[in-house]
Amino acid sequence: MYIHQVATYLPTQVVTNEHFTQLNGLSDEWIIERTGIRERRKAAPGENTNTMAVAATERALAAAPDFAQGLDLIVGATYTPHDTIFTVAHAVQIAVGVDDIPTVSISSACSSLLNAVEIVEGYFAMGKASRALVVVSEHNTAYNNEQDTMAGHLWGDGAATLLISKERLSPDDIRIVDVVTGGAATRGKASTAVTLKPVEKGIVMPFGKDVFIHACQYMARVTTQLLERNTLGVDDVRYLIPHQANLRITRNVLEQLGLPEDRAVSNIQFLGNTGCAGAAIGLADTWPNLQQGDRVVITVFGGGYSYGAMLLEK
């Protein structure tokens, strides 16, 4: 499989740490020390998970205008839906104007990007599709309680779209070499550490330390597993793009893997935690810098303790 194009959409409104200092007394220094976050984006009135997904998709297709002609699969991913019935994938299908193709939406928290890619992998393997659109979009601020001093300052909004084909369409395409995912819902406080129960309440994270510990463990472990499966070492990796949850998690994973900090892609400083869109946004940021032969690993971890890693090669 090949990624032909990736594009993003970020809301224009920037929310700095000063907002939370005034709101609930959390200082800029305190937030940066514990999370690395300096600012985040917030969707404007009238924007939502679906509109951001459509905007990212329009940008991707504008850069690859011929791709939609053979599009035969749409996979959307989010844990912050605008509508649980008319899903993000349906909204994107209307925007691209392609009828009678599989249109699927999934959620496995912040690791959903890689599960969406695996769905594409399955459709391609079964001969049911050959050209897919994967869109990841999060409207965290719609569900967030900013007064929550444990997690209210973490979240940002954004979306990204990947155009994926079974065959190479351009010399600049990036090959998806391998994907590994798993679930660790039986471990630690997976069932309660991070929850979003729309009928009851928004995003809460009562056990952030447990999330931190397991995120560090699993992102490093699955990255090592992925590299070993492909007979590679960390020195063969040009960039590591981790889930953008916490800069301290990224640094911990780098230390476990023995990678220098300049090999990691990080956007959490300016975007906050954008959920399953964060790593895809990181890939879009990295795309212009990739040279032929470069390898990239995306590694993710989400609430419910789902995890995964994906190996890419230019």
* Superfamily (CATH H level) name of the largest domain: Thiolase/Chalcone synthase
Distance between the termini: 12 Å
Main β sheet profile: 9 strands, mixed
What is the oligomer described by this structure?
A: single chain
By DSSP (H or I, 4+ residues per run), the number of helices equals 9
Radius of gyration: 18 Å
The number of domains is 2
Which strand order does the major sheet show? Answer: 5-4-6-7-1-8-13-12-11
Quick check: average pLDDT? 97
Helix content, binned percent: 25-40%
Coarse shape: globular
CATH architecture classification name of the largest domain: 3-Layer(aba) Sandwich
Report the count of strand segments.
Answer: 13
* CATH level 3 topology of the largest domain: Peroxisomal Thiolase, Chain A, domain 1
Overall SS class = alpha+beta
Taking pLDDT < 50 over at least 5 consecutive residues as the criterion, the unreliable ranges are none
CATH hierarchy, class of the largest domain:
Alpha Beta
Strand percentage, roughly? 25-35%
Helix and strand succession?
EEHHEHEHEHEEEEEHEHHHEE
Indicate the topology:
Layout: E1 2-9, E2 13-16, H1 17-24, H2 28-35, E3 39-42, H3 49-63, E4 73-77, H4 88-96, E5 103-106, H5 112-125, E6 131-139, E7 157-165, E8 174-183, E9 195-197, E10 201-204, H6 208-229, E11 239-242, H7 247-257, H8 268-271, H9 278-286, E12 295-302, E13 306-313
Parallel strand pairs: 4-5, 4-6, 11-12
Antiparallel strand pairs: 1-7, 1-8, 2-3, 6-7, 8-13, 9-10, 12-13
Organism: Hymenobacter aerilatus
Keywords: Acyltransferase, Transferase
Protein name: Ketoacyl-ACP synthase III
